Amino acid sequence: xxxxxxxxxxxxxxxxxxxxxxxxxxxxxxxxxxxxxxxxxxxxxxxxxxxxxxxxxxxxxxxxxxxxxxxxxxxxxxxxxxxxxxxxxxxxxxxxxxxxxxxxxxxxxxxxxxxxxxxxxxxxxxxxxxxxxxxxxxxxxxxxxxxxxxxxxxxxxxxxxxxxxxxxxxxxxxxxxxxxxxxxxxxxxxxxxxxxxxxxxxxxxxxxxxxxxxxxxxxxxxxxxxxxxxxxxxxxxxxxxxxxxxxxxxxxxxxxxxxxxxxxxxxxxxxxxxxxx
Amino acid sequence: xxxxxxxxxxxxxxxxxxxxxxxxxxxxxxxxxxxxxxxxxxxxxxxxxxxxxxxxxxxxxxxxxxxxxxxxxxxxxxxxxxxxxx
Lengths: 277, 86
What we know:
The complex is a heterodimer of chains A (277) and B (86). In chain A, 38% of the residues lie in helices and 21% in strands. Chain A contains 10 helices and 10 strands. Chain A has an 8-stranded mixed β-sheet, with helices on both faces. Chain A has a two-stranded antiparallel ribbon with strand order 4-5. By secondary structure, chain B is mainly alpha-helical. Chain B has 7 helices and no strands. In chain B, α1 packs across α2. Chain A: InterPro entries: Xdiol_dOase_suB (IPR004183). Chain A: This is 2,3-dihydroxyphenylpropionate 1,2-dioxygenase. Chain A: Pfam families: LigB. Chain A: It comes from Phytoactinopolyspora mesophila.
């Protein structure tokens, strides 16, 4: 049976790859060092596939049809969505491989587990959600991906509990198939930040450190004890912590924080963490 | 809260379509007519009054991305959003 052999979480601020030089040198070094550490760990794990969990920023979906959760079952994904975004992110536009078999399995398994994600068989393009972290973690774009999109950009949002449980479902789905025996889960987004709002450039370090403390505890009750308003206190971008909650649910164990840096120049509380698997 | 769907649709379409963005800059009334945007939202879009659009319920991601696409730079967007310049 398949198993989740690793689970990692990372911020995906465009600054990480698009304008890294604006951060304090020590902060940049710490963050890039943590990305390097996760890349080495993933290489050692030699996964057959990566379930990549993130939001998307109105790159594909809009308010005419906005899924709370969506699962990609395509064989490839374009990213970044435009050449202009590629220049902004410092990522050359290219195709990322998709694991269509695992994607289709995950979608079907989700439905049979009483989840109702949107089905995305093709046409899903990436923005900073995956392009930024994968530039560091899989620079050759060799790893087959199953993208999972969580709404983190427009209220109302799926609850913290629902996100965590969605992750638990992912673990059960991985264990219920044999095609991809070694699977890594990668969640990207957050931590505190404000996009397009008057507070942009602020970081809510207290919120971020408290969230990481909960993640390190591995306690589902603490991880899911968030109201929408509590997350609002760390900005509209903080709602992306749902991707970390999905990953935490998939891992089912405590995490180690590999780095945390409040980086106003990148507009985010920037962190990476790894599950103790 | 007024229905802001039509406004947000314009913001999203501009973000995805540079030709539309350019047309909005050159003939805003024609584009605003096509999207059926009236009243305060129309005046605010023409004036690039992001503060009012934000306060009327436009999603800040959509607002910010639209601003960038029509050539407003980041610093100017936030200055307008915060009401520091009009």
